[in-house]
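Issue: ligand-bound run for flavin-adenine dinucleotide - logging full I/O for the record.

Environment: standard queue, default settings, no custom constraints.

Inputs:
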Amino acid sequence: MDMISDFDLTGSNTFGLKSSARRAVIVDDPEMLPALAHESAASGLPLRILGGGSNVVLNERLEAIVALMRIGGRQVVRRTESETIVTAGAGENWHDFVSWTVAEGVPGLENLAGIPGTVGAAPIQNIGAYGAQLSDFFLSLEAFDLKDGVVRTFDAAACRFAYRQSHFKAEPGRHVILSVTLALPTVWRAKRDYAGLDLLPEQASAQEVLDHVVALRASKLPDWRTLGNAGSFFHNPVVSAEKAAEIAGAPRYPQPDGTVKLSAGWLIEQCGLKGFRLGPAGTYARHALVLVNHGGATSTDIAALANHTRDKVRERFGVELVQEPIAF
Ligand SMILES: Cc1cc2nc3c(=O)[nH]c(=O)nc-3n(C[C@H](O)[C@H](O)[C@H](O)COP(=O)(O)OP(=O)(O)OC[C@H]3O[C@@H](n4cnc5c(N)ncnc54)[C@H](O)[C@@H]3O)c2cc1C
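Outputs:
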């Protein structure tokens, strides 16, 4: 196994945060996992799993072995009258995988186009966008259990998916996802019941929906290649109906259990923090929910801005914001 010492991770996270790891290894074969688990135990260095680095806040120095997930492969497994089963290796780029399914004549995932990162990370927070989420299509995944040293298969129930949540977030670092298998419906209709997508004609093709979603995303979010970011930095908070009623003018999204989801971006904007800057970190001028790296920021700079934002929202509205990207 080729281990690289003092590996520079600055180019391996979409925030572009300055970071390095004691050791790093490119994982392109599931068979590498047992040896890697052994190496981690023998060296006393924890194993950290990194996909596309689009949902992490990396510390300046990681005293760890960082596994850069590059396991490839994608396949149409079978087509039945009701569904088409597709599978992909954890290291496949998510957007490329979505584009490939549409090109193969297997629509369904187009609303999730343009989300950065890898297939293997998609179940971690049950990625979602434009009225769809991974769990709508999920069949199973294979993961290496670092604790017990075996490969396990998880079905949807075992993954315990919820809004930006899964079983894997509850037990971080235990399972290395190797591949993901999805079931896409054979009878397909464009899902247009989401703001912005309603502009599409009823008979829009999956490719047209995909292109439209990519264009919408580009108009709202900064391109991480030119302005480092990790997408939405805070979850939209879910509060009691009474609490929501106290906040005048807030957009409210009632939930089936009687609670109300609020817009974290709106709350931040009301605190005057849209386009705010604190050192090299800032909030995006066009979308207050996105924290950005104006150049040379470290995790300390992002943490300072995140704390400032959380404090202002708590003081003004009594609402606690929870960070979405995982710190490590
Ligand atoms: C501009 C931008 C827009 C975004 N828009 C959205 C959006 O619309 N919807 C959405 O849901 N998310 C969005 N995100 C967040 C991010 O793209 C997703 O969370 C994505 O799934 C992260 O994939 P990744 O490969 O980059 O994961 P990483 O950032 O590398 O890792 C994230 C977490 O998953 C773990 N992990 C990664 N791969 C594996 C694996 N194979 N096995 C086990 N654990 C693993 C890591 O250890 C880490 O804890 C956005 C991010 C950006 C930068």
